[in-house]
Amino acid sequence: MEQKTATIIGAGLAGSLWAIYLAKAGYAVTIFETRSDIRQAEISAGKSINLALSTRGINAMDAVGIMDEIKPLMIPMTGRIMHSTKGELTYQPYGEEGQAINSISRGGVNAKMMDLAEASGNVSILYSHKCVNVDFDTNTVFIEKRADKSIIEHTSDVVFACDGAFSAVRYHGFQKLNRFDFSQDYIDDGYREILLPANADGSYKLDKNALHIWPRGRFMLIALANEDGSFTCTLFMPFENDEYSFDKLKTKENVDTFFKNIFPDFHELMPDIADQWEDHPLSSLAIMRCYPWTHNKVALMGDAAHATVPFYGQGMNGSLEDCFVMGELMKKHNEDWSAVFKEYQEIRKPNGDALQDLSLHNYKVMSQSVADPNFLLKKKFEHRIHQLYPDKYLSLYSMVSFSNIPYAEAFQKGKEQDTFIESIMKDYEIEKLFKMDGIDELIHHLFEDR
Ligand SMILES: Cc1cc2nc3c(=O)[nH]c(=O)nc-3n(C[C@H](O)[C@H](O)[C@H](O)COP(=O)(O)OP(=O)(O)OC[C@H]3O[C@@H](n4cnc5c(N)ncnc54)[C@H](O)[C@@H]3O)c2cc1C
Fold first, then answer.
1. Closest Cα to atom 9, ligand 1: which residue?
2. Is 195 helix (H, G, I), strand (E, B) or coil?
3. In 3D, which of 353, 446, 443, 365 has the Cα closest to residue 406?
4. Is 15 near ligand 1, meaning CB less than 6 Å away?
5. Residue 366 CB–ligand 1 contact under 6 Å
6. How much is the pTM?
7. Ligand 1 geometric centre to CA of 437 (Å)
8. CA dihedral 233, 236, 239, 245 (to 10 degrees)
9. pLDDT digits (tens, 9 = 90+) for 286-311
10. How far is the CA of 358 from the centre of ligand 1 (A)?
């Protein structure tokens, strides 16, 4: 019997994990990747260096048995540490005892999944091979070899476009189809990464087991630990037209003054920030929505289907969850790809939309709300409710980051819970009740019969 064949465009996070799923199902997989092998080169500029990996991503990797290999790359972050302008620190746990999101190197996790895909014996990755077109009638992809610009044609039983936010398969293929919906919205903010090096003895300059945030209203700085003692910090801020915007940081002096005044504790850790400013490019952020996600035997997965802004730390997690869902449907429909694709896009599209809406919503939470005492009180209240009624109350953040509840369902439930909590906080003096040890009584009264 001839071996089943699959093509994947893009050996990024979704592509390399999906290759492992397909290899396990017995497919001979060919991946075409436009970059050179990241295991031999520096990761390309403009992409975040580390990412927050949470339950959905872990669940998707666990389903193909690779978590033992991934775990050593993870640095658990149990909560946020907020840095005020005065340098005061406030810690806020993300979930319950033992729950954490994880800082992980983009290059590290990608390279590991490529290794595991290749080790299966069913996957070959061709680097410096750029997809330039697709033929939906014959499942053929057209690939330009970087070395001599020649075009090769490659046909297989099924094709998966995991080629990221600027997907060539979407652009050259799907966008030429009748009634294909597509929108691309750049937000007003850009980002620039800054590497905060380790101390001379290799130790960390900040607590490595937290995600650090310097919330400043319309903009913020965040920092996630790397394995080598350094932190990758990211400044998110409007490009222009604001009191504080990237266009105002033109000279070394501007940069130095800005950090000294706005992030004084960070400036103390990195007094030469102005010299490092140009090390990483200023990058833009966009949300891309489209539909349908599949046509004939070709499917869009990951950012190619639902690229989002990074404020919930869920773009990769959602992309890996696509692999999990596609894998479950592949089994359910016994690899009848028409049936798999139909159900995949029907159930995933509302979740892709919700992931994007949640990501936008969380920018406000991270840059403004986390510094607001009322928000912190609300979080404390929610936390206590969850402790007393874990089956009846899970915060939106926990549903998104520590569960596999579909994004759309989590978002909807989160909105309903928020309305409820807000109304209780209007009717009762929650802060006083915490001080008087009366909060549990109120929670029992509210939740006993709910
Ligand atoms: C600043 C920033 C921070 C982020 N932080 C987080 C986070 O903390 N947590 C989280 O979950 N997500 C985060 N994300 C989102 C995450 O990076 C993406 O959602 C994730 O990379 C999507 O994976 P993917 O495989 O779909 O796309 P990618 O990882 O972009 O991979 C696409 C691959 O396709 C290749 N390719 C592109 N075009 C072609 C072509 N024509 N032919 C062949 N190959 C091609 C690319 O070279 C690449 O290897 C962040 C994103 C940004 C920008």
1. 313
2. strand
3. 353
4. yes
5. no
6. 0.95
7. 47
8. -90
9. 999 999 999 999 999 999 999 999 99
10. 18
Q: Is 176 exposed, middle or buried (0-12, 13-18, 19+ CB in 10 A)?
A: exposed
Residue nearest to atom 15 of ligand 1 (CA): 315
Q: Which two tokens stand for residue 125?
A: 């990755």
Tell me if 381 CB under 6 Å of ligand 1.
Answer: no
Cβ 191 under 6 angstroms from ligand 1: yes
The one-digit pLDDT tens for each residue of the chain (450 residues) are 789 999 999 999 999 999 999 999 999 999 999 999 888 875 544 455 899 999 999 999 999 999 999 999 999 999 999 999 999 999 989 988 889 999 999 999 999 999 999 999 999 999 999 999 999 999 999 999 999 999 999 999 999 999 999 999 999 999 999 999 999 999 999 999 999 999 999 999 999 999 999 999 999 999 999 999 999 999 999 999 999 999 999 999 999 999 999 999 999 999 999 999 998 899 999 999 999 999 999 999 999 999 999 999 999 999 999 999 999 999 999 999 999 999 999 999 999 999 999 999 988 887 777 778 898 899 999 999 999 999 999 999 999 999 999 999 999 999 999 999 999 999 999 999 999 999 999 999 999 988
CB 35 less than 6 A from any atom of ligand 1: yes
- Judge if the beta carbon of residue 370 lies within 6 A of ligand 1: no
> Relative to the CA of 320, which ligand 1 atom is closest?
23
Structure-block tokens of residue 229: 């003692």
Q: State the closest ligand 1 atom to the C-alpha of 52, by its place in the atom list counted from 1.
A: 8
Q: Is 124 helix (H, G, I), strand (E, B) or coil?
A: strand
User: Which residue is listed with tokens 């800082």?
Assistant: 103
Q: How far is CA 54 from CA 35, 153, 259, in A?
A: 27, 38, 31
Superfamily of chain region 5-75+106-184+286-361: FAD/NAD(P)-binding domain (3.50.50.60)
Does the Cβ of 51 fall within 6 Å of ligand 1? yes
Give the position, in ligand 1's atom list, of the atom nearest the Cα of 191: 1
**Residue 103 Cβ contacting ligand 1 at under 6 Å:** no
- Evaluate: CB of 52 within 6 angstroms of ligand 1: yes
Ligand 1 pocket, residue 49 CB under 6 Å:
no
CA-to-CA distance for 273 and 264, rounded, in angstroms? 12
